[in-house]
Structure formats: structure tokens, C-alpha cells
Amino acid sequence: MKRKNFIILFWVSLAVSMFFFFVFTEEKNLENFLYTLLISFIYSFVLGGGNGMLNSFLNKKIPWSEATTKRAVISIISIIVANFVLVYFCNYVNFVLIQKTATTEEFFLGKYNFLNWFTINIALLISAFLHARSFMEELKKTSRKEVVEQKLIAKSANAQFESLKNQLDPHFLFNSLNVLSSLIDENPRQAQKFTASMSKIYRYVLEQKDKELVTVEDEIEFAKTYCELLKTRFEDSVDFTFDVPKEDYQKYVVPLALQLLLENCIKHNFATSSKPLTIRIFSDGKTLCIENNLQIREQIKESSGIGLANIVQRYSLLTERNVFIEKSEDHFKVKLPMLIAKPQVSTSKAEDDSAAYKRAQKRVKEIKSFYMNLISYCTVCSFLIFINLFTSSKNHWFWFPVLGWGIGVASHAFQVFGVGESWQEKKIREIMNKQKK
Length: 437
Known about the structure:
Heat Shock Protein 90
């Protein structure tokens, strides 16, 4: 137990001993006060400390967040057994060893059964409160931890996505300037034409690079313009074919994907008039494909690896569908997933978080209502037992409300922790997951 808990138990013991001394003690002297204080300390530290240590032990071995149902069952069994033992120990020390109002035989033969039973109910009430408080504290910690983790994941994903998008601008500019510098030496007139076309294309790059997705139509139109730019340099050495039906135009792909893939085709393959590089862009089901014949050139410089890796990573942040790469002896193909609608990442995430929060809130209310029911049961039943035995020790009518309400509490416990709506939801989720597989 923590030092703070010992201090609380000390002040509780002192307050209880003062109350009993001034209200129930006839001879108010120092000796009686010390006796009352000693007895109060025994009950407070044994019952309170014992339940506190039991709760701490269970928190370490079986945390609420990892196994709620198992923890609830073990908690109920353990607090009943523990409080039964602790109460009998405290009462034995009090009445047999300290006050000496009964012998050991008299204590265990039934003279103090009512007092033991009443004290056990009070101890169970305190223990139920401690376990409920522990559950609420751990639930708050878990909720805070999950919120922090989700925020970190969201920030990390957003930063990663922004980093990937920021690669596109300098990457395109650098490669375009390399092409332009080559054209200046080879064909100055073509270099002028290339410069005019490049300004138009670069405007598109600046407009689209901050978007998560663009329509297939926009990407195809941009790719055609970029192909004209490449034709300016390579002329008959490169052939481009576009075969994308118009019904796929309103689907979505990541921006500048085709430009990066076209750039890769040119970079990694040689192209001549006698052996032209053939690049085909077409749709295949739910994918947009770009395919070229393999005419691998020797790489003078090591590739930066930005193009294809950039596309794969951007798709991974937006959808679960993968980018497929197919390579044969004479062909290389990349398949880009075409998305039917723009995934509203932030909105859907907020909606998921909101729905999860509402479910968690509902769950907390259910568990809280159960613990309030349990605490009320222990309190009221203890009071009824006391009234019944105090007024009529022969007619034990208290069994009827104790058993009746007890069945209700047990049913409530099974509903919350075992076979209620939460169990149904788990089964539904399991069946749906199996069907998906």
C-alpha cells in the first residue's frame, strides 16, 4: 500500500474512535479512549488495508483493461473469502483477546454470529467501493492512454503523408531540369518548346501535390501532356498508348502517380528508333495499369528510389488496397488501385472515435450501475438483517429480500460481465469477421 493510503486509514481510525468514544462510551477516561483507538485501528488497518492490498494485487495480476469479466468474477470471490477471514480475525482479537467478553469456544459456537455477519456485510460494502473506484481509475487511465496513442498515430501519419507529398515538387523539378539541360545541347529549338510545356505541367504539379486524391480523368490528361513533353525529347523512340474507358474517369488515384511511373520507365529503360520503348496506360478491373516493355539500361548513377516507393507509401496511408508490381522477362507492369470515392480520413476517424467514445460511455454506465446496485444491496440487506434480528430473533424474514434481490444482482452481473449485450456484440463481431475471411 502507498503512504497516502496509510495516512487516510490513520485519520479514518481516529475519527471512528472519537465517534464511538464520545457517543457510546459511558466512562470517558484515557484508558477507555486508548482501548477504543486500538480497536478502531485494528478494524481500519486490517479490513481497509487488507482489501486495499487485495485490490492492488489483483490490479497487477489481472488488470481490468485486459480481462474485465475474469477480473470481476475473481474480485467477487476473493473479496467474499478475504473479508470473511479478516472480519473473524478482527472480532476474535477484539472480543476474545482485548475485551475478553467471550472465550474462543463461545466466539466460534454462535454467540457472535450476528455481529460477525453484520461486520462482514459492512466490509463487503467497503471492498465493493474500493474495487469500483479502482475500475473507474484504470478505465480513465486506459482511455487517456488510447487517446494519446491515437493522436500520436494521427500526427505521425499526417507528418509522413506531408513529407511524401513534399518530395514530389523538388523531385519533378530536378528531373525536368536534367531533361532540359540535355535538350539544350541536343536540340535548342526543342528545348524552347520543352520549356513552354514544362511551365504548364509544373503548374499542375503545384496545384495537385497538396491533394490526397485526384480523379483518373485529371491524372490521364496530365499524363498525356507529360507524354507530349517526353515526345519532344525522344520523338519516335517512345510510343504511348492510352486505353482507359470513360466510366473509370470519375474514380480516384493518388496525384502525380502516372508522372512518376512514366519517369521511371524512361529512367530505367533505353529507347531508340530501332527499339522504341512502348508504354501502355490502361484500366484492368479496379486498377489503373501502366505497362512497358523491358529494355533495361545500365545505371550510371544509383536511383533515388523516390518514385515507386512514394506511390506505395501514399496509398498505404489512404487505403488498405495494395499497389501491385508485376515483372516478367520482357514486361514490367504497375497496378494502381482506383478508389470509387475519396476516403474522408479525418472525418471517418472522428466518427469512429465518436462512436467508440459513445460505446465506452455506455459500457461505463452499465458497470457503474452494477456497482451501485451491489453497494445498495450490501447496505440495505445489512440494515434489514440488523432490524430483523434486533426486533425478532426467531422470525428470520430478512432471507426473502436478501435472496430475491441477490438473484437480481447476480443477473445484473451476468448481463454486464458475461452474457448480456456485450457478449452478443462480441459474437456478432466474431461471425462478421469469419464471413469476411
